[in-house]
Amino acid sequence: MATKKAARVRSVNASGRKLLQRTDWIKAGLAQLAAHGPDAVSIAAVSDKLGVTKGSFYWHFGSRDEFLQAILDDWALNATRRIIDVLEHSGSSAEEKIRRLARIGVSSSVTDYGGALELAMRTWARTDRKVRAAVAAVDEERLDYLRRLFSEALPGQDAELLACLHYSFSTGLRLMFSYSDDERLRLRQRALDEIFFRKTSPATANDAVTDNDQERPARRQKTAGVSAKAS
Q1: Which of 107, 108, 115, 41 is nearest to 72 (CA)?
Q2: In this structure, are residues 50 and 20 in contact, taking their beta carbons and an 8 Å threshold?
Q3: pLDDT tens digit string along 38-72?
Q4: Which of 37, 173, 202, 231 is deepest in the core (most CB within 10 A)?
Q5: Cα–Cα dist 27/22, whole Å
């Protein structure tokens, strides 16, 4: 079998055609999934996308199920574990790691590991138990990492709540197509500056409370006036 495969490799190279690797198939499968959903990730469709015959698929995968599992594994690795590994080797503080996550979240291609693929994975998980378990594991891995970062960056705060809020906001924002990448990044940075890592002095905090207390009666009066007009 190895001899036949080697002969095949040599003949393909001799003909001048590009020799596809397993990673090429997975990348094409991810793009197909992001653009058209899991049902469209067929051997025939991906072969056509790559411009090869279906026969070449079986040099890398034994079945479509094996191919789909490879796509799922690749997503879990590159959209989560690889990013965590990069951050952990950066030597940055916990707060800077959280801020870098905001930049990483909007810098990847939509057809690779961006919003469209994230949405496709979650849609796929609704109808496939194995995919649902994999997505749940990815969610827990991401949340666990955020919990650890927030525990270090903001000791004494509720790291569980902060991790959940951050992940819900950032994940939801990636699935919204009404914002450009630049707008998403600005919103995520504003959320970090004004909500998660807001630097407030005691005097400023007291002033804010006083201002809010002064505004409340005016709001109540305005609301009462509107209600009276409505009645």
Answers
A1: 41
A2: yes
A3: 999 999 999 999 999 998 899 999 999 999 999 99
A4: 173
A5: 9
